[in-house]
Design a protein that fits this description.
Layout: E1 12-13, E2 16-17, H1 22-36, H2 42-58, H3 68-82, H4 88-103
Antiparallel strand pairs: 1-2
Helix pairs in contact: 1-3, 2-3
């Protein structure tokens, strides 16, 4: 089993990372898996996440812990683009697909994305 050093500011309890929403756990797992596959190192991940947190602080993020996984997502997007894991056009299209799915999902229901592959 691969272990990664803990990241500063990551919400945790005695059992490990904690997540307020399912998407946060999915984003966490995606970053771990992409690193395990060698698509970026954990050091690259930590540096990119740190840069996103610093940028958010410079833009006025109060750093109350409620935006931590927003920074996580921006770091994933940034590395995915920098490493050419996805094109900007594909990322924009998928973002639009998710936005439409979210806006068309009744409150309280899970958002489901159905797209052609």
């Amino acid at each position: 089993m691969t272990t990664f050093p803990p990241l500063p500011l990551q919400p945790r309890d005695n059992d490990g990372p904690v997540f307020a929403e399912p998407w946060q756990a999915q984003a966490f797992a995606l970053a771990v898996e992409l690193s395990k596959q060698g698509l970026f190192t954990w050091a690259e991940w930590a540096e990119t996440l740190g840069a996103e947190i610093r940028a958010a602080a410079n833009d006025g993020d109060a750093d109350l812990g409620d935006t931590y996984y927003d920074h996580w997502m921006r770091a994933l997007e940034r590395l995915s683009l920098e490493k050419s894991l996805v094109t900007p056009e594909t990322m924009d299209r998928r973002t639009d697909d998710w936005r439409r799915a979210y806006l068309n999902t009744p409150h309280g229901q899970p958002v489901e994305l159905f797209t052609k592959i």
